[in-house]
Structures are given as C-alpha cells and as structure tokens.
Amino acid sequence: QVQLVESGGGVVQSGRSLRLSCAASGFTFNRYAMHWVRQAPGKGLEWVALISNEDGSDKYYEDSVKGRFTISRDNSKNTLYLEMNSLRAEDTAVYYCAKDGFCRGGGCYPNFFDSWGQGTLVTVSS
Amino acid sequence: QSALTQPASVSGSPGQSITISCTGSSSDVGGYRYVSWYQHHPGKAPKVMIYDVSNRPSGVPDRFSGSKSGNTASLTISGLQAEDEADYYCSSYTSRGTRVFGGGTKLTVL
After folding, report:
1. In angstroms, rounded to a whole number, what is the distance separating the alpha carbons of residues B101 and B91?
2. Considering CB atoms only, which of A63, A111, A117 is closest to B45?
3. Contacts of residue A50 in chain B, CB cutoff 8 Å?
4. Which site among B33, B49, B99 would you substitute to test the A interface, given the most A Cβ atoms closer than 10 Å to its Cβ?
C-alpha cells in the first residue's frame, strides 16, 4: 500500500534553512504529482507547494512561501523534497507530504490529496 | 489566496445528520469540480473522505456524502457515530493552479 514517510524536521533559528524529505513507496512515484501541506500549532491545514509528475517541470507555491521554499523530486530515489530558506517563526508547523489523486482502471482522478504521510515538525525559533 | 470559509464548529447526537458548508468563489469552489473533504484526528494523518465534489474513495462509509451549489460545497454525515468526531477540512483547486483549504470545522458528537 501507499506509504509516505517525512523526515528532516527539527528546531532551526529564524533566517536559517532546512530541507525536508518524503520517502515514497507502494506506488509508481514518477506517475503522480506531489504536494506539501502544513499545519501550524492550533491552526488549520494550509497547502504549501505542488510539483507535477514525471520530470516535475511545473511547480506551484502558496504566496507566503514563494521565493523562499523550493519543491523538488528525485524519481530515481522515490523521494520528494522541500527546501526551506529564510525561515520565519510563522513557518513553524507540522509538514505533511501528500500524493495527488490516483489512477485506476485506465483512468486518473487528480487534484485531491489521496494519501498523506504522518508529518514532520518544524520549529523556527527567534 | 484566502482560505475557504467553513463554520468553526458543528455538533450532533449519535444517529443524527449534520452538514458542513465550504464557501469559496468562482475562482475555486464554483469554477471546478475538484472539491474534496478531509477528516483529521489530532496527531494522525488526514484522510480523504470525498473527492471531485461527491465521490467517495473505497472504504469510506456511504454515510458521508458531498454536494455543491454555486460557490458553496457541502459535506453531509448521516447516522453520526462517535468515531466521526474530528476536524473536517474542505479543499479546492484554484484558477491559479494552486490549492486552497477551508479553515476547518470541529465536529463534536454529543
């Protein structure tokens, strides 16, 4: 079955950088777009970034992270990444990776978060 | 991108039905069929309950149903059970190619 395991979270000072990883298994990784979603303490879910399937040439970002965060993928390693620079206190959150949609019976159903990891906590200290 | 609007909380007794609304705009909820709903128990991974406005993934009970009218989508849970108590979020594709979530609704089963 689909498994997504995030890693790389921790405590980091404001202004510094951190790279998150998401190891995927149980599905054909390169076939699917992938997302990062976060949840700040006591807050709701917030979509962060999307990378297209195959070569990952299309990338989209939430406005508050644009220019600071970079999403990427390594299909040879079945791994999704989120490079986070110039971190701010408001970036403190649990970060989840999520698989976009599913394909079955010759048809694909995109544009929703089909499977999620357990999340990794990023704490930005000032 | 502003978050979609959901009620902060709803409640119901076991066996009753509740509906959670999710209001956006013509640039997201109203413009596309890509509205989905997620159940989130604290400390666990979110779980998709509805995709494409009204489709249920395999394994999701048929007590959960979704609909949309104009810029507002709705999630209805009938025959409420104790294990339905959780936070619920709607999400939509947007005209910019991004995604947006609702603020979340806390469901309490009385």
Report:
1. 4
2. A117
3. 97-99
4. B99
What does the CA dihedral A4, A45, B70, B80 come to, rounded to 10 degrees? 80
Residue B38 touches chain A, beta carbons under 8 Å:
yes
What are the angstrom distances between the C-alpha of A79 and each of A20, B6, B70, B92?
10, 34, 38, 25
**Distance between CA atoms of B75 and A121, rounded to whole angstroms?**
29
pLDDT digits (tens, 9 = 90+) for B59-102: 999 999 999 999 999 999 999 999 999 999 999 999 999 999 99
Residue with tokens 């059970």: B81
Place of tokens 């990794």: A120
* Residue A37: partners with Cβ closer than 8 Å, 6 or more residues away: A45, A46, A47, A48, A95, A96, A97, A98, A113, A116, B46, B101
CB contact under 8 A, A45 and B44: no
Q: Which amino acid is residue B100, in one-letter code?
A: V
Confirm or reject contact between B51 and chain A (CB < 8 A).
Answer: yes
Q: Which one, of B55, B64, B65, B70, lies nearest residue B23 by Cα?
A: B70
Which residues of chain A lie closer than 8 angstroms to B46, CB-CB? 37, 45, 96, 113, 116
- For the stretch B27-71, pLDDT in tens is 999 999 999 999 999 999 999 999 999 999 999 999 999 999 999
- Tokens representing residue A61 in the block: 């970002």
Query: In which residue are the tokens 């999701």 written?
Result: B60
